[in-house]
């Protein structure tokens, strides 16, 4: 039966109204959006790289080099620990994925294996491949975790650097297991962007006010002085952070603090930093880890300078200056202070983001000019308008003003819901996405065509108007589900395995298929039910 309970009618109507409200910011001019709440006005579809113009870069992250370096550090740690235990080995060799430890005495194999396992408890697989040979490798879980961490850290560093260029809404995301995709609209020359992303940031640990000193601004001091300094023509294009820092301190010494000229440890020696909590006091702290050589240097410095401040300098800015409370040896330590949880997260991020954790190599680069983007928008808009107009005309000619009008109304609701869905998901509209919208227009009325043809058949068999319409919806539903489901599977696979243009097309196509199931069946069924109660026709003119 076409008759729907009142709650279903209100639910369908509410869904359409909600879709209208979500899609409305895309249709309003900027002057109107300025008067709306920010959370609502920002709910708009952003243009993709191919429509707005900019740079498209795909970087390969050398995760393997990180594993090799970690194995090298592990090899040093094994030698140091065995030396303490007065145990000797012939050789420790690395093949880039594991260590081979050659023993002098087979009787020591079990003891040495236990010592190695305890160096990084739960993270190492130690197996005996011969009486005097051990194989040491990180567990698969640890390698997967480390790969994820390296990619996350790389994305954090890249995002921090790209945001400093003043560009808006860059797309920086993981692609596969070892790649990072960077899309920056508005950039015509990708060479500068590549240089900015690939350059390692300068991270340093310096003692404060010890020996010969230099002035370096605090982060707050830098942020307070640099905007005014940057207005000068001389400093607008200056990229040397050392010169900028010296100029800031020359102009406003109160915004700076004296730090030692000698660098205790550079950021290149830092392997990890995480926000965590002190198990005894439950206060937020930052834990960090160094390489073997960095750990030794840090141990010496903290042993000799207890109760003295240690400045953490990132790009010539002092982001933190905690007091050394005790000697920090073993290659790891904690930074404590009057921190909130958010501050410890920010500090850990800054420590990790001081340098790229792995080398980034460009394997794909494209540039889309703004003019090409404007032409693409114009061509895509024309195609969408012409395609929609032809579909509307076809439906009116084939099924008359009433039923053709209902099908076209369902198509409009479908497009409205697609735009609302893209706004909520934060999806970008690309040129292939416009092609997906044009295809969606045709597929939006496809379900109504199946229903109307079924209704014609039922009516030709002598059924009444209400009975023919009810049977048309019921018998066409299986064909509609099959047709949309198979196409939806293809769209989901394109989105999952595709990239760039393929994903843009798959996004609008998949959303269009899902919303067309609502608009062409559920929505039109409600509208036709209301129309049937109002007109009570004896025969349906389709």
What does this structure look like?
- The chain is of the alpha+beta class and 542 residues long.
- The chain has 17 helices and 18 strands.
- Strands 10-11-9-14-15 form a 5-stranded antiparallel beta sheet. Strands 7-8-2-17 form a 4-stranded antiparallel beta sheet.
- A hairpin with a 4-residue loop joins strand 3 and strand 4 (99-103).
- Helix 1 runs antiparallel to helix 13 (370-425).
- It is elongated and about 100 Å long.
List keywords for this structure.
five-stranded antiparallel β-sheet; four-stranded antiparallel β-sheet; 542 residues; alpha+beta; 18 strands
Summarize the structure.
This protein is an alpha+beta fold and 542 residues long. Helix content is 55%, strand content 20%.
Give the strand order, joined by hyphens, for the main sheet. Answer: 10-11-9-14-15
| Secondary-structure class | alpha+beta
Rg from Cα: 32 Å
Low-confidence segments, given as residue ranges, are: none
Cα-to-Cα separation, first versus last residue: 19 Å
What profile does the largest beta sheet have?
5 strands, antiparallel
In round numbers, the mean pLDDT is 80
Q: What does the overall shape look like?
A: elongated
Could you give the topology of this structure?
Layout (H helix, E strand, L loop, with lengths): L5 H18 L6 H4 L4 H4 L4 E2 L1 H4 L1 E8 L1 H22 L4 E6 L4 E5 L5 H11 L4 E7 L2 E6 L1 H24 L7 E4 L4 E7 L4 H9 L4 E6 L4 E5 L1 H11 L11 H11 L4 E11 L3 E8 L6 E7 L1 H13 L5 E5 L2 E4 L11 E4 L5 H12 L7 E9 L1 H56 L2 E2 L1 H14 L1 H15 L4 H33 L3 H35 L7
Parallel strand pairs: 1-18
Antiparallel strand pairs: 2-8, 2-17, 3-4, 4-6, 5-6, 7-8, 9-11, 9-14, 10-11, 12-13, 13-16, 14-15
């Amino acid at each position: 039966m076409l008759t729907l309970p009142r709650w279903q009618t209100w639910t369908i109507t509410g869904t359409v109204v909600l879709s209208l409200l979500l899609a409305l910011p895309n249709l309003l001019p900027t002057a109107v959006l300025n008067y709306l709440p920010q959370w609502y006005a920002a709910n708009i579809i952003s243009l993709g790289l191919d429509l707005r113009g900019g740079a498209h870069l795909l970087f390969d992250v050398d995760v393997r080099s990180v594993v090799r370096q970690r194995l090298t550090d592990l090899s040093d740690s094994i030698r140091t620990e065995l030396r303490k235990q007065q145990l000797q080995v012939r050789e420790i060799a690395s093949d880039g994925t594991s260590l081979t430890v050659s023993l002098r005495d087979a009787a020591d194999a079990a003891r040495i294996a236990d010592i190695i396992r305890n160096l990084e408890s739960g993270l190492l697989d130690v197996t005996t491949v011969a009486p005097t040979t051990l194989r040491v490798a990180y567990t698969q879980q640890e390698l997967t975790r480390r790969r994820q961490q390296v990619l996350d850290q790389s994305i954090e560093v890249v995002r921090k650097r790209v945001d400093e260029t003043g560009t808006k809404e860059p797309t920086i995301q993981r692609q596969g297991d070892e790649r990072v995709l960077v899309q920056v609209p508005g950039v015509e020359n990708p060479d500068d962007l590549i240089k900015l992303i690939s350059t390692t940031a300068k991270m340093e640990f310096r003692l404060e006010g010890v020996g010969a000193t230099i002035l370096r601004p605090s982060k707050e001091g830098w942020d307070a002085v640099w905007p005014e300094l940057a207005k000068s023509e001389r400093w607008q294009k200056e990229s040397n952070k050392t010169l900028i820092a010296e100029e800031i301190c020359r102009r406003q010494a109160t915004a700076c603090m004296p730090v030692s000229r000698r660098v205790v440890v550079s950021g290149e020696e830092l392997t990890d930093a995480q926000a965590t909590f002190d198990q005894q006091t439950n206060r937020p702290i930052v834990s960090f880890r160094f390489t073997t050589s960095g750990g030794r240097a840090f141990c010496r410095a903290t042993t000799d300078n207890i109760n003295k401040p240690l400045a953490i300098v990132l790009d010539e800015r002092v982001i933190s200056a905690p007091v050394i409370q005790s000697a920090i040896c073993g290659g790891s330590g904690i930074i404590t202070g009057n921190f909130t949880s958010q501050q410890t997260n920010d500090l850990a991020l800054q420590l990790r983001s001081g340098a790229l954790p792995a080398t980034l190599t460009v394997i794909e680069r494209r540039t889309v000019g703004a003019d090409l983007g404007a032409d693409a928008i114009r061509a895509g808009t024309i195609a969408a308008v012409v395609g929609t107009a032809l579909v509307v005309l076809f439906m009116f000619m084939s099924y008359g003003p009433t039923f053709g009008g209902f099908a076209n109304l369902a198509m409009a609701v479908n497009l409205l819901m697609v735009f609302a869905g893209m706004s909520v998901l934060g999806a970008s509209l690309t040129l292939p996405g416009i092609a997906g919208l044009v295809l969606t227009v045709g597929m939006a009325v496809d379900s109504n065509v199946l229903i109307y043809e079924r209704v014609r058949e039922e009516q030709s068999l002598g059924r009444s108007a209400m009975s023919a319409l009810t049977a048309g919806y019921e018998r066409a539903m299986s064909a509609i589900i099959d047709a949309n489901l198979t196409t939806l599977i293809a769209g989901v696979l394109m989105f999952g395995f595709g990239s760039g243009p393929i994903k843009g097309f798959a996004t609008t196509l998949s959303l269009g298929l899902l919303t067309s199931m609502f608009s062409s069946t559920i929505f039109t069924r409600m509208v036709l039910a209301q129309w049937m109660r109002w007109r009570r026709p004896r025969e349906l003119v389709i």
